[in-house]
């Protein structure tokens, strides 16, 4: 029997937990069961109570206090501890059936997705161990990044880094689309959805900064001057070209308040994990019975 899940990842504050809640709500409206796993040891408030909460195994606050670690070191410690105690996840997940979508809500520390080799170990356990979960990563990036194009490419690079590191089906998502509505022309938005290196050359903000900054020459080390400098531009162009050359990253749009938008993202996740192919066809009578309970 297969199991199905999605790992909701992305930088701090990208809207991961909000997306998880919107997804749970959407699944409930569509009478689909889901299983919510919180893997953020610092998360406090939940719109839906998690079925598994890493805080029942280890809390970031305790780790920071007892081990004298900061929030990032503490988080890495929590994940190393989780990897040494995987039964905490395995035992309850063994019971989850194939009609469930298992939603993993991840923390936002970017180290987890870039250079620390912890997540690959966890993903390997979930996908290839006895649990055998068909998984898809949902990597969220805030759509407000597209207003600052170098920042957008830096975020896109982090998404690509996670894709390369985790080697699993991946959907990238521009979250909080409601915040950029009207700010970006529709034609431009399409170019952001599949990263296009020429976006930097056509960046109106950059041209403005270059010519309208009166301090450019007066203060050679000011932040504005560095950000408008030619070496900064060359670095950005190289990053953008690298992303363009790999041709791996494209984005879906998400407005977590809009049920259709959540449904559209879910359909990509379902396709990536082949959820519907594995479902037993239900007899019409079964459906009526289920509806009445
Ligand atoms: N306008 C708008 N705000 C959103 C949306 N999604 C999330 N937010 C807000 O963004 C903030 C962060 O959202 P979270 O869902 O907690 O983000 P997160 O990625 O889980 O954050 P961490 O777990 O701390 O990394 C909150 O204030 C949310 O209300 C959205 O679609 N639109
Ligand atoms: Mg969160």
TrEMBL record:
Keyword GTP-binding: yes
Region feature (Disordered): 204-224
Coiled-coil annotated spans: none
Superkingdom classification of source: Eukaryota
Entry keyword set: GTP-binding, Hydrolase, Nucleotide-binding
Statement: the UniProt record of this protein carries the keyword Signal: no
Functional description taken from the UniProt entry: Small GTPase required for proper nuclear import of RNA polymerase II and III (RNAPII and RNAPIII). May act at an RNAP assembly step prior to nuclear import.
Quaternary structure annotation from Swiss-Prot or TrEMBL: Binds to RNA polymerase II (RNAPII).
Protein name: GPN-loop GTPase 3
